[in-house]
Each structure stands twice: as C-alpha cells, then as structure tokens.
C-alpha cells in the first residue's frame, strides 16, 4: 500500500495545512511551533531530541482509498486535498490493518439511511423506556463512588458506539458544550481553576492528551476536571453538575488521570545535578551558602479520624494534636521541588521519613542539606559524607554567640523559600483540606502530581525580582 504520511508538494502552502476532521484544529503551524519549543527533559528543542506531537497525512491517491477516507470524514463539502492528523488513526498513522481514520471523527455515528418514520405511540414508548432505565440506574448509585479509591488538540470527540447504552453516555448532550472554553478565558481564571497560567494549561493538555482514556468527555475537559479537583477540592457532585456527567464518571476520570499524570509528569520533578544547581542558584544562596544542594522540610495535612484505633494512633500528630498525613519536601535553591516523599502517618518522625522515603539515596558526598532544628538526621548524613546546615541551638539557656546569631539569621532568610514553596503546594486545596480516609490510598500520587504542577509555574525565588 502506498504510504500516505506527510508527503508535501512544493505547490502546497505548508502553513495553511490543517486537519480536515470535523472539530479538529490541528495545523501544520501548530506542529512547527511545538517542534521549536524547548523539551523539558532534554534541554533542547523538540526537533532536536523528540518526535513531533502529530503529523498530517494526505488522502490516498487510489480511488478506493480516497473513497474510504471521504466516507470516514463524512463532510458535505470536503476540501479538494484533505489531510488528517495522527490522532484519528488507530496506529497513529495509516497502517495496513487500519488505513483509514477511525478515531474521534467529530460525529457519533455515520448518518443513518432514510427509513420510515416511527409512529407517535412507538416513539413515546421508547422515550418512556429510556427514562425508566436512567431513573433506575440513578437510584442505585452508591455513595462509595465518592473519591474512593498546547493547544495542539482541540477535537470534538465522538462516543464509542459499542457503549451507547451506558449511563455515562446517556447523560451526555448530543452536542456537548466544552467546559474549558467557557471557564478558561484568561490567565486569572485559569489560575483560579487549575493553579496554572493559560499557556501552561494548553501545553499540558497537548502533552497529556495521548493516552487520556476513552471517556465520553473532551480530553481538555477531562484534564480540567482533574485539576479542579486538585486545585479547589470540590465535591464530586459539584464537579458532576459543572461538567454535566454522572458522579461515577467523575470518579473514574479523576482516578485515571491521576495515574496518567503521575507517569507523564515525572520529568517535571528532576533531581538536579551539581552544575544545574550552581547555574540556577540565586544570589542570596551564593553569598552565604554556595554549596547548598537542597532545603528540606516536612509538612502535614489534617486527616479524618479512622474508626480503627491502631490506624488512628499511627496518624496522630503530637505537634498538631490531631490526626494528620505527613510528607517530606526537598527543594533546590532556585525553588524547584526536586523530591516529595510518599504520604506517612503524622506519628512518623522527620528522621523516619527521611530514612524510609528514599530521599537519602539522592545525596552524594560533598552535598549540603539545609534543614530546621527539628531534623535530627546529622548521623544519617554524616555516614554519607553530607553536611547538614541548620540554625544553632541555645545551650543551657545561654544566649547565642554573635557568630551563631548571624548564621541563624542568614539560614532563616533563605529557608523561608521552602515555606513559600509549601504554601504554593497547598494552593492545591486537596493538600490543605482534611483528607477523607478513603482518599489516603491515592494521596502519595496526589502529592507527586501537585508537586510537578507547582514546578510548571516556574522558580518561586525569581518572583521577588
């Protein structure tokens, strides 16, 4: 079979090429702009290290191939030379098994052939049956579904006809309004709903859309739904009403996207090497603590009391006097979160979390770690030939020496940045509000995803400039 991958003619204006699928806005210009952007993982442009986010494939030259493509596009007035982007092919491009566009073609099913109109009585019976089915299903909805467990993609996604009888699709509108286009009109609104500027949201959507799952909701709306849960910690019923879907679907989308984002966003929380740390180190560190590798601190979030007494005891924090979830955060001098631990019970000490979270494995001889007085990990770091920098202790009630006072003040001046990072982290209210017991299995994933999203905002220390 003749290949139909992007085969360009000199007579074609490449800048004007766009996907011919109904509702898809992928263009050659968007592809070119994406390739010129810097890749976060490799520090080079995507053209130098990564493949394009999509390609535009030209309609086959054979009569049969052309006929099948036009049938799939299902457009009344198709362009003379249609192109279709990679997102609409099962294999990402025309293949022997799937030569035609099949995915997300902008309509539910091909238009049915003309048939005799049903009588009014039969139509009424069918409507009554559908209403009864939806009512029956909604009455069996269980409360256990409550959180128990670029701009490159702008598609109007079609529903899978194989699941046409499911409740999730029954609750969708034939022409569903896109929630992200209604809510995210500018940076202010985007920051309020997602914690990200609008451009960062668009870039994130472009990166995460492949593999987003076959849910009857536009991928950008799926991403927005997930970010709104993280940013605002809305009730599931509230989210379901905003997106006009069932509560069960909201729960499934959130669970799927949380796992998906945790995998795809790992590169946004790197452990920086010595050269990178030095190159991005702010002047306030260069002046007094030029060898600092990271600043660490622990934070806690209130936790719903468990019925099990053992679990309640494991999560009780004597510092806060209530049950909490506790985790360790390590940031680079520039303000980038380099490490966040899994979630632990509030009873765990800073030393226990430092030992068991894997944080120590990142440290190398000659590194310097800055911490507060409560981190009693000097022996652990000494074994690894790592220096611990912390404020001086008063001895037997005696005042600090002038040298210790100056050092303590300087440490406090730079350590304030880790507190600012944690405050930014807790702008995601799911990390600030009391944690339901049934959300604890997901909480470590939530921590990692929120940390990566914070890093997308940029270096926090640069905000002072």
- What is the name of the CATH topology of the largest domain? Nucleotidyltransferase, domain 5
* Basic shape: elongated
What is the CA-atom radius of gyration, in angstroms? 27 Å
The average pLDDT is: 78
Task: Determine and state the CATH class of the largest domain.
Answer: Alpha Beta
GO molecular function, one term: zinc ion binding
Organism: Coilia grayii
InterPro entries: HARBI1_dom, THAP_Znf, Transposase_HTH_dom
Region (Disordered): 99-144
Question: Mind explaining what this structure looks like?
Answer:
By secondary structure, this protein is α+β, with helices and mostly antiparallel strands. The chain folds into three domains: 14-88, no CATH class; 146-158 and 171-264, no CATH class; 269-464, Nucleotidyltransferase, domain 5, CATH 3.30.420. Helices cover 39% and strands 9% of the residues. The protein is built from 18 helices and nine strands. The protein has helices at residues 28-36, 46-49, 63-73, 120-139, 167-170, 179-183, 187-194, 198-208, 219-232, 236-243, 247-264, 274-280, 283-288, 309-314, 350-356, 378-383, 402-425, 443-456; strands at 56-58, 83-85, 292-302, 316-317, 322-331, 337-340, 344-345, 368-370, 387-389. The strands form two sheets. Strands 3, 4, 5, 6, 7, 8 and 9 form a seven-stranded mixed sheet that branches. Strands 1-2 form a two-stranded antiparallel sheet. α9 crosses α11, α10 (236-243) packs across α11 and α11 (247-264) crosses α18. It starts with 27 loop residues before the first helix and ends in a 9-residue tail after the last helix. Mean pLDDT is 78; it is low at 1-11 and 109-174. It comes from Coilia grayii (Gray's grenadier anchovy). Its cofactor is a divalent metal cation.
């Amino acid at each position: 079979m003749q290949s139909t991958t992007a085969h360009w003619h000199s007579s074609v204006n490449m800048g004007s090429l766009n996907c011919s699928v109904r509702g898809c806005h992928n263009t050659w210009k968007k592809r070119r702009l994406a390739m010129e952007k810097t890749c976060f993982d490799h520090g080079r442009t995507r053209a130098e290290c990564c493949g394009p986010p999509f390609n535009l494939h030209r309609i086959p030259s054979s009569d049969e191939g052309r006929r099948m493509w036009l049938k799939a596009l299902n457009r009344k007035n198709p362009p003379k030379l249609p192109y279709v982007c990679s997102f609409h092919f099962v294999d990402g491009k025309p293949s022997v098994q799937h030569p035609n566009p099949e995915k997300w073609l902008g309509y539910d099913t091909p238009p049915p052939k003309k048939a005799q109109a049903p009588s009014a009585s039969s139509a009424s019976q069918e409507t009554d049956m559908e209403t009864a089915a939806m009512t029956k299903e909604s009455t069996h909805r269980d409360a256990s579904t409550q959180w128990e467990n670029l701009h490159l993609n702008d598609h109007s996604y079609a529903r899978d006809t194989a699941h046409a009888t499911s409740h999730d699709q029954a609750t969708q509108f034939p022409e569903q309004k896109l929630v992200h286009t209604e809510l995210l009109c500018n940076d202010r609104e985007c920051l309020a709903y997602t914690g990200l500027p609008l451009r960062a949201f668009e870039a994130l959507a472009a990166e995460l859309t492949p593999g987003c799952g076959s849910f009857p909701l536009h991928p950008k709306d799926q991403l927005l739904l997930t970010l709104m849960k993280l940013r605002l910690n809305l009730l599931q019923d509230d989210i379901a009403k905003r997106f006009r879907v069932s509560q069960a679907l909201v729960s499934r989308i959130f669970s799927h996207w949380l796992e998906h984002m945790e995998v795809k966003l790992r590169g946004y929380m790197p452990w920086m090497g010595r050269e990178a740390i030095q190159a991005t180190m702010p002047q306030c560190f260069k002046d007094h603590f030029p060898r600092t590798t990271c600043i660490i601190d622990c934070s806690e979030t209130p936790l719903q009391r468990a019925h099990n007494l053992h679990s309640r005891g494991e999560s009780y924090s004597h510092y806060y006097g209530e049950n909490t979830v506790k985790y360790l955060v390590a940031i680079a001098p520039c303000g980038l979160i380099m490490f966040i631990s899994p979630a632990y019970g509030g009873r765990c000490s800073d030393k226990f979390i430092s030992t068991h979270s894997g944080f120590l494995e990142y440290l190398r001889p000659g590194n310097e770690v800055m911490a507060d007085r409560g981190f009693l990990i000097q022996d652990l770091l000494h074994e690894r030939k790592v220096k611990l920098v912390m404020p001086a202790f008063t001895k037997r009630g005696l005042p600090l020496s002038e040298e210790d006072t100056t050092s303590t003040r300087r440490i406090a001046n730079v350590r304030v940045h880790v507190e600012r990072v944690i405050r930014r982290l807790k702008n995601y209210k799911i990390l600030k509000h009391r944690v339901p017991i049934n959300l604890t299995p997901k909480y470590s994933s939530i921590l990692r995803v929120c940390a990566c999203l914070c890093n997308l905002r940029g270096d926090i220390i640069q905000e002072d400039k």
